[in-house]
Amino acid sequence: MPPSLHQLVPTALALSSLAAQAVPVTVQLRGPGGQPLAGAAVAIEVKGRTVKTSTTKAEMGQRDRQFTPELLVVQTGTAVSFPNFDAVRHHVYSFSPIKVIDIKLYSGTPAEPIVFDKPGVATLGCNIHDRMSAHIVVVDTPTFGRTDDKGQVAFDLPVGEHVAKAWHGGQKSTNLQSVKLEVPAGGGPVALTLAE
After folding, report:
1. What CATH code is carried by the domain that includes residue 36?
2. CA separation for the pair 130, 95 (Å, rounded)
3. What confidence tens digit (pLDDT) does each residue in 29-54 have?
4. Are 125 and 166 in the same domain?
5. Among 3, 69, 109, 119, which residue is least crowded by beta carbons within 10 Å?
6. Do both 126 and 74 map to the same domain?
7. CA-to-CA distance for 151 and 34, rounded, in angstroms?
8. Which pLDDT value is given to residue 11?
């Protein structure tokens, strides 16, 4: 005898509740050869979650004639300031399609932060110090992180299928790569392999 509608509803609610529950997941990002990718950006687009643009602030400083951090991951809409902690002046620029920047020779902190309103990767440089370079990865989700030395980053995610978007400095392109992420009921480690 087939189950009645009353019997199916509690089962559907239980499955829905399980999918909405967040479980701890450690994502390990690997390159095409299986090597862990340290210092890579990873963003998770959670299925069914509506995301608003961010109004938060972040910082990409210059210290010891280097950008710090060299890789900054932010959500779309984040205002980034560029304080110069060096005794010398810097000229920060980017010709990236997601954000063109030209902060002329300065010391201290520019008065206005720059809002990153499009997703993608912005490559930064200094017109005065050629060896200075950095990247700002802008993502359309508040769920993001940067991998550690083992290529790992931890999240609390709902059980089910989501999309991971990732980028690392060794890539030839500045496009984020999309990879399917399946979060098991108990959470735990999940390995993702990028194509390049």
Report:
1. 2.60.40.1120
2. 15
3. 999 999 999 999 999 999 888 777 77
4. no
5. 3
6. yes
7. 11
8. 41
